[in-house]
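Hello K.,

You asked for the raw outputs rather than the summary table, so here they are, unedited. I folded two proteins back to back in the same session to keep the settings identical. This is the first:
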Amino acid sequence: MTTIDLSDGFDVHDYRSKLKLLRQDAGSMTLANREGLECPACDRPFERLFVTDDDRVSFGDAPDGPICLARTDARLLVLTH
């Protein structure tokens, strides 16, 4: 399995064959994990990935499972399991 590497930031294009874009707006995107990528925070496979460079984000529906957070200099990643 492959763990998302954040050592040089996060570029979705590095993982585009393993992730499916579900939703995107000006500052954020939600992706589904199609290939069992592993979370950079806990090294377990995750279901969804939310990536944002916005300063503030609000979630209307909270996921049922565990949530991991990972930060790069430019982005915040929220991973649900």
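The second followed immediately with the same parameters:
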Amino acid sequence: MFNIEYILETLSRKRPLFRSEKDFQESLLQIMRSMDMKCEANSIINGTKVDLWIEDGDKEILIQLKHKTKKLSVHIDGSQFDLKNHGAQDQGRYDFLKDVKSLEPLCIDKNHRTGFSILLTNDHRYWEKPIKHDSVDKDFQLYDGRKVAGILQWKEEASNGTKSGRENEIELKGTYELRWKNYSKFPTQDSGFRYLRIDV
């Protein structure tokens, strides 16, 4: 039976961090194939692009991935990793929840199909509750323990630059409780990577 948590735990021992979202996608694909899973990257399902498609017996697993980093320079297993600061957490939150929305029509009420939206990051501003309670991206906050559901939209004060390409509201059919889990930790760093997984 497909167990995404076990797969990510196994991957974390081999690859505690990634250089990019594509690196994350390819590494996850590779480790699943090493487990004799039939899987493909960048598949089109009913007109929607999904990052990973997996065949699990008579069922399909669809996975959307996001990889967001704050600046990090670390040497691991003979390799140097210099990760950039992505910033724009408000847009990152929107994009992650948009992935959830993209999976819902493909998976909800479909017994043969399950979806996962996964965000991997070392940026604590994704998993910590913000000090400012009324930010322009309040609806899109992803802090640990929050429940998201219904119509999510920017506040009126959000700038055009912030909303560019992300103007549309996001309407979720399901209700999701957000629970972050540890992915990897580095002795010389204050915080390692955590991931948020939403099951659709």
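Helices lie at 4-14, 21-34, 89-107, 124-127, 160-163.

Happy to rerun anything if the numbers look odd on your end.

Regards,
P.
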